[in-house]
């Protein structure tokens, strides 16, 4: 008995210790990513790159994305970040990464050869990775990340389900949209689904309409604290959600749905409308290739202003400034965003390419998504973002309107209270 | 013919047994159902999994299991999970039973303080501890090594295992130890020859608890390990849960494969609980 | 006391300490050091990545005491714990008692009851969300529970289980208990096995019925094990969160928030690492106080 245990222990010890540290190989680039859906495509591209250039590229996948974020933060502190990685945080955190010296400034590389690399990519995609002069984050202006795909978030409609309710054309205004929802409700079809169990999606919808109702300047003024959330324009934004509820437009349990499940609902034809990003094309295709659907901008409330949707870079990579293989890493990213590789990625993963010249072989629905790229905006490119804690009160407030717990006026008051408290705290802190 | 009607005592006993069985069966059904659902889903295809509500799928796709194994690189992950589980369990049983024996039977300076320290650690979750932990492991050159992960997981289960062992050690009558000491056994010998064998049910519980924790763990593994060759099984399963499209049947197949070994470990261990108890009863009757 | 016996005393003391040395060494490295760091961080304002941390003393703690959402999430966790302590543990105890006697299929039951703990929380969340799904497709409920209620004649009981604030948390608590009772079952069973049969026989000889022997033999003998299970249940239920995320996401306003989800939000949502550490330390402190009182109570009960 004792001997068996001793044997087992020694085997364990051998296996445990027998894993030496990897030595740094100057001809090998390590990339940490979170994109489970694209891992196979990445592995194939790595293989091709090694064939072409002899440089070995290792893609390592860490999922889900929140665990990936934690790993990046912990590794940054321990200074063991890989050559290429992604930062899934908001812009002010990206700024901190840059200021702590782990992100390389790629502006010169982008501008080289008469801005060849820069011009091949969608300007909106670059804008998300860019810091302008006089940015509020204290970062030297420049481009710090490489977008490998673009995306935007719009509304989708199921043509077959709409036909069942006698609707032949997708609605053009918000009023029409509510009427269509009523018609669907009468024939027993659920109207609208979205991943509103994820706070950022509710925020996105609200933000789009905020821009439509009052315009970007007023929204920015609110962030600065000059306009209160109890302003009638903001109440109109909150009211939109109430009207959705009143017109029975929302699918059952929409506030507990993660986006994954909302996508399932639309793909399986349980709802006629969806609010989702261009990545959904791949998802819908895998779940229901027969789905007959179209893309449209969210129908406007205010016809005098444009509808601005969120969009820009889908996923971006940054280069570790402390890496010994920085040049090779940048060269690889340049290759990854070149036309041939982008076409490959677009075909394999049905995401919009970041490279403008690679739009040739994408399905029609994706092309419809791409057409709206110039109308996009994104919190990353705004001059000022709202405090995350106020945003949480805002998003949760919208959820409580949807489940009928609070009225728009109540939510507006709560958000304004939170905003006032945060601004007070910030003042105190800056005086400390 | 002599027909004896069952007497009152037998009837009551019969009803009691039937009710007990009914109770047990109902609960068992609720436990079995999700497992059954998991296996059933693993045999369907991505198209039929949402639409087909039947209990047994018409068409069975056993191929999903092969896909799960190959696509998920289960071979190396499985091996890693086994290594980690065995190492951590052996480590914890040894380290915590030693400590628990000391807390239960020996005297030393600061005994109570140390014990309460372990108990307090159980109460204080350390969210965000992965940041200082990674920095520390890197300084010790333990990041991205098997040894580092194993030591970390031993720490995770330490407090509870010590508590469980101490609870059981406390119940052992001291006459057995005294007689062993008279026979010339050292303290370590008493621990090995007397205390541990008597605490067989406790060992079984500690083994099951820690084996399950290590087998199902993936957050620390993802944070502390970077080499694919070191990753445990749960990480392989994460690959099937894409951020958007989830291949449910293959995921279910992978989950079934992952659940099977730990059920086997449990079956073996719960057998030990019974054996250990029988042995204890006989050893107690020897003394009386 | 002569020098020699003092030295001998010290030697014995040290020998005994060696027994706990491995545990203490591992613990010191992997818990105490991170704990010190976390406590230190709770006194700062930090976003997790920048090189500078702002020392703010106990300001975070002050903010936490006034954080209504935090205390509401604590209340939710208490609710889940309450359901776990009552429903889960009573069930586990009853099942263990039933399985302790010599009945048929004992091994079978023992195996089945341990299946829920074996399944990872993601699977459990996934499967139960399917079962509790409240949607409709083609006029028929999608979720299994609603489907069964509809089919077997209780259409008025069909409900949006996971999206109604009144039922969502209870459903989560029940699923959590379902997943957890296997542990209590195993530990109680092990405890039952160590109760000497002769005590029961002695009680029967004295003329004790079922309930008498239950209160006078079973409960007192099982008391230490019961305390362990209670403490474990409280710790486990207060810290549950993976199940919630996989069943309702971030949704349902604050009705399904628990302390750990708040900590996660502070870490990743608002990037206030220092505040997250404050929450962790406070949470731990509360749990310690609770267990201390439980311990006191159990000591009093033992004396009674």
Distance between the termini of chain B: 48 Å
Assign an overall shape of chain B.
Answer: flat
Q: At CATH's second level, what is the architecture of the largest domain in chain B?
A: Orthogonal Bundle
Helical fraction of chain B equals over 70%
**Sheet bearing the most strands of chain C, described?**
2 strands, antiparallel
The outline of chain C comes out as flat
Return the structural class of chain B. mainly alpha
Q: Structural class, judged by helices and strands of chain C? A: mainly alpha
Describe this structure in words.
The complex is a heterotrimer of chains A (432), B (288) and C (304). Chain A is of the alpha+beta class and 432 residues long. Chain A has helices at 2-17, 39-53, 65-78, 91-99, 107-120, 123-128, 159-164, 174-186, 199-214, 216-224, 232-246, 259-267, 280-287, 326-336, 339-349, 364-371, 388-402, 408-431, and strands spanning 28-33, 56-61, 84-85, 130-131, 142-143, 145-147, 149-158, 190-194, 271-277, 293-296, 309-313, 316-319, 352-353, 376-377. In chain A, strands 7, 8, 9, 10, 11, 13 and 14 form a 7-stranded mixed sheet that branches. Chain A has a 3-stranded antiparallel sheet with strand order 3-12-6. The longest helix of chain A has 24 residues, at 408-431. Residues 18-23 of chain A have low confidence and may be disordered. In chain B, 76% of the residues lie in helices and 0% in strands. Chain B has 13 helices and no strands. In chain B, helix 7 runs antiparallel to helix 10 (200-216) and helix 8 runs antiparallel to helix 9. The two termini of chain B are 48 Å apart. With 304 residues, chain C is mostly helical. Chain C has a single domain, classed as MetI-like fold (Orthogonal Bundle). Chain C contains 13 helices and 4 strands. Chains in contact: A-B, A-C, B-C. Chains B and C meet through helix 1, helix 4, helix 5, helix 6 and helix 7 of B and helix 1, helix 3, helix 4, helix 5 and helix 6 of C.
Question: Would you summarize the structure shown here?
Answer:
The complex is a heterotrimer of chains A (432), B (288) and C (304). Chain A is α+β, with helices and mostly antiparallel strands and 432 residues long.
What brief labels describe this structure?
heterotrimer; A: 432 residues; alpha+beta; D-Maltodextrin-Binding Protein, domain 2; 2 domains; 7-stranded mixed beta sheet; 3-stranded antiparallel beta sheet; 51% helix; 14% strand; globular; B: 288 residues; mainly alpha; MetI-like fold; 0% strand; disordered C terminus
